[in-house]
Each structure stands twice: as C-alpha cells, then as structure tokens.
Amino acid sequence: MQLACWLIVFVVLVLQSGVESRVRKRQYDEEKDTIVELPKLGSIQGKILETAWSKREVLQFVDVRYAEPPTGLHRFKAPRPIEPWEDVMDATAEKIGCPSVVSMDSLRQLDDVLDVEDCLTMTITTPNVTSRLPVLVYIHGEYLYEGSNSEAPPDYLLEKDIVLVTPQYRLGPFGFLSTKTDEIPGNAGVLDIFLALQFIKHFIKYFGGDPAKVTVAGQVGGAAIAHLLTLSPIVQRGLFKQVIYHSGSAIMPIFLEEDPRKHAQEIAKKADCQMVTVRDLNNCLMELTALELLTAFMEHALEKSDLGIGHTGGIQFTIGGPSGVLPKHPYDLMLESNFSYPAMGGCPKNAGTRVLNEIVDNDFEGKIPDDEYNTYNYIDHVLRQVVGTDKTMLLTSFVTHEFFNRELMENGTFATLIPRLIDVAGTLNHKLPVLLALNMNNKHNPHNTFLYTFDYAGEFNRYKEMDEETNMQSPFKAGVSLTDEALYLFPYPEHVTRLSPHDLTMAHRMVDLWTSFVIDGNPLGSHRIGLWPPMTTLYGPYLRIDETLTIGGNYFSEFSATLSDEEDGHSLIREIYYLRSRKRPQKKRRKHLATSNGSRSKKQGGRKSLVKRPNRNKIRF
To answer: pLDDT tens, 600-615?
Structure first.
C-alpha cells in the first residue's frame, strides 16, 4: 500500500514537471541553436530575439541570400540560385536593401564600395528549427519601385506557431524594365520571388517549416506578385498552398504593360544613351551604374507622372516577351484557369485616400484648382492616376452615373466631391481588382475563398504623413487608409510600434485570424471571434473587421463606403483646411525632383529607419 502511494506521488510529480517544462519559456543556446546546416549549400548563423507580447524567444536568420548577385551581364535577367559557400554565413545583421528611389542618398555613398544590387535575400523567423510548422511568405508592398522586407517584422505573428519568411526582390527598373528581348526580358522581380519560393520549398524544413504548408501573402505590389504567381504557367503547383491579397491583385492596371520598350527607350535617353538599335539600348542600360539608372528612371517618371498610368516605365509586369511569366493579360489567364488556391483578401474602407492625397500633394501642390477644374476634370484626373486614360469614355460614363448626381456634375467643387473621389480611387485601384481575383478564385475553390473589408480606425495610419497630427494641410482626413490592416500584423514603421490598448486588442484579433488561415486554411480565429464565412456569390458574404466583427452580404456596398459614412454624419472632409486656405497666399504650382528621406543603411534604435516615399517632392506613379 505504501509503495503504491509513493508510485502515485512519483507519477504526479513527473506529470507536473512535464507541464512546467512545456509552459516555461524556451531557452536557446546562442552558440549551437542559432546555426543551421543546409545540405550542399553551407551553414548559416542566426540570432535570438523576443516577440512583442509574451517575450517568447524565437530564432531569426536575417537577409539570407537565396540568389547570386544580379549584376553585370545578369542585370535584368532571371536570378541564379545561390552557390554553395564555405564559411558560416552571417545572418545576424541587416544587409543593404534593393536599390530604389528612396535609397539614392545611400547609393551615392555605397555605389563605389558595395555591390548595391546584391540584395536578393530573405529573412526567416521561426519558433524552433526542429518542428514542421506552417509557413507564411510575406511579399512587401508599395508599388514595385520601393520598399523592403523591413516592412514585416515578426514581433506579433511569431506569438503563434508559424514560420515567417520575408523575401526581397528587385525594384523599379532593376526588376521590371523590359525591351522584350533575351537581354532585358522583363518581370525579373517576379522571377526573384519565384526563385525565393523554390529555395523555401527545398530548405524551409531546416528552419522548422513545413514545405507542404506555405501561404504566400502580399501588400499592394506584393499582392499583385502573389496573384500573378497563382496564374503564371511557369509556376508549378505545390510550390505553395494558399494566398492572401492585401489591397492588390495582378489585374491592377497600374502594374500592366504590353509595350515596355517605349518606356525603356525614353529612360535610356534620360541617361544620354546613344541608341541606333535595340542592342545599343540593351547595352547602355546594362552598363549604367545603379545610381545612373535610378536617376534616369526617376527623371522620366517625374516628367510623365501627370499623364497618369501607362506613361511611366520600370514598374509594371510585362505582358508577353521571353520571360514566360505572363504570356497574356492576367484576366485572360484567370478566365482560362481550371484551378485556384485557397485564398483570402480585402482592402481598408478608405483605401482611396492615399492616391487622392498624392494628387493634392503633388499634382495640385496643395492648392485646390477649383478655378481651373470642373467635376469632369476631377474625375478624369483621378481615373488617369488609377486606371489610365479613358479613351472610350465608357468608364467615365459609368463612374459619373454610379458615384455622382446631376447637381454635382454641374456645380461640384473639390470639397463636395471628396467622398466620391475617394471611393472612385479606392474602388478602381484596389477593391475591384481584389474582388475580381477572389471571384475567379471562388469558381474553383468555393469553400475556401474569404473576403474582408478593414474598417477599424485606430490611433495611427500605416503611412505617417497620413496621420492626423501630420496631415493637417490636407483637405480631408485619411480615414482607414491603404494597408492600415498591416499595422496590426507587423509593428512597422517606427511610429506605430507602441499600440494603444484598443489597437492592441485589434492586433491580437488580426494575428488570430491571419495565422488561423495560415495554419489550417480557415480564418476562424478563436471561438470568441466567431465564424468568417467563405464567399458563395460574386459579391459575398464578407467580413467587416472593426471593433466588432460583422458579416456583410454585398461587397458592392463597400465601393461607396466613404460616401455612406458622409451621409451618416461621419465626414472625412477637414473644414479647417478651407478656413485656413482662404488666408494662405496662393502658391505657384511647380514640380520638384524626388529626393530620399530614408534608407536601410540608417538605423534607429537597432531598426532600419522608415523607408517611405518622399513627400511633396516625390515621384508618384
């Protein structure tokens, strides 16, 4: 009897010990736990960091090279897989980001001492290297000509048992210039991500990831690349399992070009290239320094920006050409497809405030041209910047009928048109492309296609210049602006790393929803969040993400979300702007050359400084 009692006590102690060991924070050995061996490649040294909320220790491998440098004769061409290395690769510190218009100041200092185009890297963060966890590959955003993987730090998402991978790809002319020749075929940036995914397929298991459970997500340009990868005939099935689209898809007009050579020629002229043949054009573009190419690209974009989409180059997917990435228009590929991946996607409620703010800031130079513009002029200007020149006027006719009334068409001012212009910009540039992508997806995956609108207005906006305290010179508030949902998945940029209690609650909710989709393909979250139903029609149902979660039936109603709020008494129009503008002297409208106000080489408290588009004197594509 006594022996039996001792056995029971012993078993209880063992079980308690096991529970304690499971809940105790994992302690990693800096020397041995942060080194990973990749067969036939080499060793990689990572580092230990802590998550934001529970201070969970995780392992991070920073800017791991997945490709050889795309320089010299390899500029503009498909990336080459990384070759084996002998010494331990140091993956503990950030390397240089891919060259972009916002890093030009750094390029002037580094171009002579570093290979600034050697930037094809990925950062991998994992709870441990011995598990087989679902993988989220997040493709950074912006508009294919700037940004870096610093936009997606792991501090929130790694509270859950997933592996986060953030690859970099060539930007602007380095990644998307094309002459439709073998020398400059186009779509190099897409091929970079394609190669990154192949690297992940082969090696993520050595970082604790499951190569059979890879989700590809992206923001705006990153979402367009993710969507294109689901359509391209060169991408084999099984490379990833499911996708997430944040405010973008491959059918966004801003990202498509059938005749890229004309733009390449105009950019080459800005660099004083002497061209007689296409070979001359290709040779000159390949021989330019990185700084010379970016300068020519920037000057060309600045000259053409007022003309709208279709007049700038080096920022679009090339339709056709020898790259094989996009043999025809992506919409045609969508129609022909008989397969789709489990997918989710959506947009913030007021996504159009971003582009309208840029129009006011850059094209109007802060002075509203009511004395020069009528309603048709304002509509035409917005359309040119989101879909291009409306030669047939069919889209203009549709927009005026659906969003405007006769009184506004005859007597509208910018102030009275603001809510409708925001909705037009957000719908045509973001909401409709995402909805169409998910519509087609739903044809072949009716039980695993999820749509959302992000309506939560937190303390900050993703872009600092859109925040309330720094945006007082704008005639309207930012509202829930472009990519604001990313604030609650990634603590970036620096000004949003300290969330208010309400915002922190939203961050926990977003992480719960997104990682639930990554882990099992259903964004259900915990039981307290409830059910997010998949789409069953062309327009819904969909999830409204706000302080409370509700289900909407018809996503078409989101096309006029800003106007609906206006009619309900929640206006984005800033009356104080118009009071102040009457007292301000008129400014002469002029253009500025884009400059840089941030780069990856500058540090702020151990982090990369905010890489964002220059304000007032920036290029807008």
So the answer is: 333 333 323 223 333 3
